[in-house]
């Protein structure tokens, strides 16, 4: 049987859109007549289409370049930006992009030479893992939209022995960041971007790249990392104690102090220089323990800033931008453990594995936009995000939708109104 390309890709997206756990479950659930009756009523392209098997989708994904699916994801984000759907989420006239990497899946056997290798301390065996760097658009309101992804992959060498491959230097998250940042700049050449990332990115080459691309940034700064920057920041803070601000953020009392214009030397022979700005936030709040006793809590955060800090911009840059770097960790938790099955091996083919991942990101983007739309927000308030998705899945798979009404809606212009 021959299928259209659109039909196969839509079937792959539906697998993640409905949060199904495997290709086998997709074959069972997505072949229901009611679903395709509703789809044919909405999409004329599917009127003569037959339901494909997930193995057919897999064979297609083994043959097409994964970059073409990422381009679809990027085009969706460009459409949202072009139609100003995300303008309300800007912080200080910039869109906040969070970047971080995570393990997609790990196995005890090397299924492909491109997989990264790692060994737990005290273990003799070697593990193989897929590691992916993801860029997401995070908002002060808590919504997270996936934008692009870059896989860490070793270059296979013909005839290389196992011990030689183990000794060779592997690909890493910082190298993947260089590749992903280049694609983001090519796709959003004039977009005002504020990059938020953890302390792994607080180094000279990353700062230099952000400055070259005209990107702002707020990067985590751990105690002990960049010791010369820390030493100068603490010394200059003692000389300028007026650069301090007290701020009430929810139930937390915050105290900010900052230092601008720190010269950081890096590179071979310390021959390269970058001007950095440092801000530290001390937080205090009260919290009740399990016995009902109220206890004083304390936390301390520090960031490298790409722009000079003042009493007017410090709360926004820290609370509405830098702190939302943790939203990408929430995105990883949801895609791994709450329905999208990111850690499941939908394929053992390297190219197809990347394609399945991009289909998952597309479905995640569509579900997020749908749940935060005005049409579904009341359902989300009552059922929650995942409860709404499960409710929609049962609605689509059951005989509850009127095809004639769907055909009438097809002729009307579509609108996307977000509640945030």
Chain-wise SSE layout:
Blueprint: H1 5-17, H2 23-29, H3 33-42, H4 54-61, H5 66-82, E1 95-107, E2 116-118, E3 127-138, E4 144-152, H6 162-167, H7 173-187, E5 193-197, H8 204-212, E6 216-220, H9 227-239, E7 244-249, E8 252-266, E9 272-288, E10 294-305, H10 314-321, H11 326-337, H12 350-371, H13 377-383, H14 385-397, H15 403-410
Helix pairs in contact: 1-4, 1-12, 3-15, 4-12, 5-12, 13-14
What does this structure look like?
The structure is a single chain. By secondary structure, the chain is α+β, with helices and mostly antiparallel strands. The chain folds into 2 domains: 5-63 and 347-410, no CATH class; 92-337, Alpha-Beta Complex (Transposase Inhibitor Protein From Tn5, Chain A, domain 1). Helices cover 40% and strands 23% of the residues. The protein has 15 helices and 10 strands. Strand 9 and strand 10 form a beta hairpin. The longest helix is centred in the last third of the chain and has 22 residues, at 350-371. The radius of gyration is 24 Å and the shape is globular. The relative contact order is 0.15.
